[in-house]
Amino acid sequence: MGVIELLEGSLWTLSVCIFVVFGLWRIFVILTAGRSPTQARPVGSPRGGAVRAIFGHFLPRRAFLGQGRVWFVTIAGYAFHIGLFALLFFAAPHVAFLRDHILGFDWPALPRWGFIIAAQFAFTGLLALWVRRFVDPVVRLISRPDDHIAAGLTFLVMLTGCMALGEQSVTLRGIHLGFVEAWLIYFPFSSLMHTFTWPLSRGFTGALAGRRGTRM
Amino acid sequence: MTAHTKPLPPKSFDQQGDVPDAVRVASAMEGFLSEFGPRASSYLNACVRCGLCAEACHFHLATGEAKYTPIHKIKPFEKAYGQLQGPFSWIKRAFGIAPTVSIAELREWEELIFDSCTLCGRCTMVCPMGIDIAELVKEARHGMFQAGLLPDRLAQIAGNAKTKHSPFGAPADFVEAIQAIEAEFSIRLPLDKPKADLLLTLAPGDLDEHHQSVVGLARILDSLGIDWTLSSVAFEATNFGYLSGDTQLQGELTCRLIDKAREIGAATILLPECGHAWGALRWEAARWYGAPIDDIRIMHTLELLAERIQAGDIRLRPVGESATFHDPCQQIRRGGLGWAPRVVLKTLGMELRELENTQETSFCCGGGGGVLANTRAAPLRLQAFEIKRKEVEATGATHFVTSCGQCRLQFDRSRKETDWDKEVESLLELVAANMITD
Question: CB of B407 within 8 A of CB of B366?
């Protein structure tokens, strides 16, 4: 069996299995950790508060809009995440891959110029946030090795994806697939899991605030 | 010959008890996770280290120091989670790569966990993940308490609460203080009535310095015709178990009030102008009973004033001047009472000039969360106070009002240090002074 067959076959299956099984395990451990103390009689709705917080934290509050770092992180964060989302689900090779191997149906893909814009957004956002980890004293202090590995792997996945876009080289496609699989295997053990944990975190805080009749 | 020695740097940690370092570390690890649940777990699994929490913290903004970044303050706590309870801690332990916490780290972090966090929760407001870091710091304090690594002054005050009944003193000291206030103001303060509808609690600051608040509250309760009492064995509203990380003490202080109220048939426990008392009793009492406290209403003075004003039971003479209001974090951002002071100030006919950062995003006074009691943190408190001072001055308001005795003490001490002439006023005292009595 050749490397490409391995990457498209058993390694792909293995990486997806690790991603799913350990990702679900992590969510399970979060939700079953320790115990939740008995709560006080509520003033407002914990559920309403959770929903409000889940959506409310998408944008910074007015009180923080005067701070440059808040703007920087917000704009770079949105550029990266929106760009990555577009690449992941609307790049023509991805749409075809999802149709042929997973879903059985497809949807309109991004035209080439759309792919290039999305990639530019994603790269600019990711690099801006990553460079900040080295130059900003606060973020430099609090960054863990995991934060750099996660950023680095994501960068390599995106870079090799762009290199393989023409679909003219099996080797380039194989390299991209290899990095995607490494990324999937690393994902559930890393800070990349914030992709799935953010609603939990916001929701818990929002429920507390809702119970108390405040907004947090 | 005179020996010249370099002055020693200020000690950045205190410790209590005499136990081996290994025992302290083990106790801390156990204590860190003693109250751990899904909420804290979700927070530790969501942080992406963006550092925005620093942009909300008054200690970071006032000093510019990276170490005051809120999420950095819980590093040992986070390591304990990674070692013992995280989703993959068993794998990490098996491969010998689980994070470890050293005694040196714990000592270094004592300042970050106790001196430079007021549990104000402003960092949550800017966090894209909505992480309640104040709650995590509170849980980290459990471990530090278990390890005997508290600021000495905080440990001493919590010790007084445990052994003498209250940081203020023993029941006999309380009775003496009440009698002194009665004599000074020619007022009767009902004490230890066997039955009453309302149990009034006080804070040490009320008994030490804010006598007008005690008198004002008594006059308001009397004018409303409420059957109320103080109790010499359940008078303490503050909860230094909550602030020091001593959960057992927190439970004892909480149950003392609830049990006393039940004993005398009180339907209401009234809390004074105090911030964390509201958090500890109103929002956390249920955990000690395993059920919500449905038979007793835990009420804050702010609520009483606003509700009775809205009901027309309290009528006020309009003051007619401008005022700005400092929102105490535990009452407003974390307590849900933001509406109440605005009702009161409006009824007082005051032109409210809001601070630049107000209500849920208000800056902390700098002395909450036990930091005011921690004498070691005085220089840091003073730096944080500057933020509030500038905001207050920018409003140009005649009155600077708040509804928390601890905030008032922080402002009073800081303004004396900085020769600031703006006196902070109590909302309760303003109401009492302008109440129309028939």
Answer: no
Contact residues, B window 292-311, toward A, CB-based 8 Å cutoff: 292-294
Alpha-carbon distance of B38 to A16, in angstroms, equals: 26
Question: Any residues with CB less than 8 A from the CB of B266 and at least 6 apart, and which?
Answer: B196, B197, B198, B199, B229, B260, B296
Q: Please, which residues 117-176 of chain A have a Cβ atom closer than 8 Å to chain B?
A: 129, 133, 136-144, 147
Quick one: CA dihedral A7, A10, A13, A15, positive or negative?
negative
For residue range B165-218, list pLDDT tens digits in order.
899 999 999 999 999 999 999 999 999 999 999 999 999 999 999 999 999 999
Burial B209-248 (b: 16+ CB within 10 A, else e): ebebbbbbbbbbbebeebebbbbeebbbbbbbbbbbbbbe
Which residue is closest to A25 within chain B, CA to CA? Answer: B87
Counting residues of chain A whose pLDDT is more than 70, the rounded percentage is 100
Hey, what are B416's tokens?
A: 């004396």
ipTM topping 0.85 = yes
Query: Distance between CA A200 and CA A9 in Å, rounded?
Result: 34
A77 CB neighbour count, 10 Å cutoff: 18
Token pair 């990674």: residue? B82
DSSP assignments along B71-133, one per residue: GGGGHHHHHHHHHHTSTTHHHHHHTT------HHHHHHHHIIIIIS-----HHHHH-TT---H
| Neighbouring C-alpha atoms within 13 Å toward the C-beta of A60 | 24
Alpha-carbon torsion, ordered A53, B134, A126, B83, to 10 deg: -120
pTM for the model stands at: 0.94
Q: Does B360 touch chain A (CB under 8 A)?
A: yes
CB A44 within 8 A of CB A213: yes
Measured distance CA(B173)–CA(B151) in Å, rounded: 25
- Pairing mode, strands B297-300 and B268-271: parallel
Predicted confidence at residue B9, as pLDDT, reads 55
Query: Which residue stretches of B265-338 are H helix?
Result: 276-277, 286-289, 301-310
**With contacts defined as CB-CB under 8 Å, which chain A residues touch B56?**
64
| Contact in structure between B367 and B311 (CB atoms under 8 Å) | no
Query: What is the CA B144 to chain-centroid distance, rounded?
Result: 18
Residue B404 region, left (φ>0) first, then alpha (ψ -120 to 50), else beta? beta
What are the Cα distances from residue A93, in Å, to A10, A19, A181, B67? 20, 21, 16, 45
Burial bucket for residue B324 (CB in 10 Å: 0-12, 13-18, 19+): buried
B37 three-class SS: coil
**Chain B, nearest residue to A38 by Cα:** B287
B199 - beta bridge partners?
A: B229, B269
CA distances from A76 to A82, A133, A161, A197 (A): 10, 13, 21, 20
Measured distance CA(B206)–CA(B186) in Å, rounded: 17
Question: CB neighbours (10 Å) of residue A62?
Answer: 9
pLDDT tens-digit series, residues A89-116: 999 999 999 999 889 999 999 999 999 9
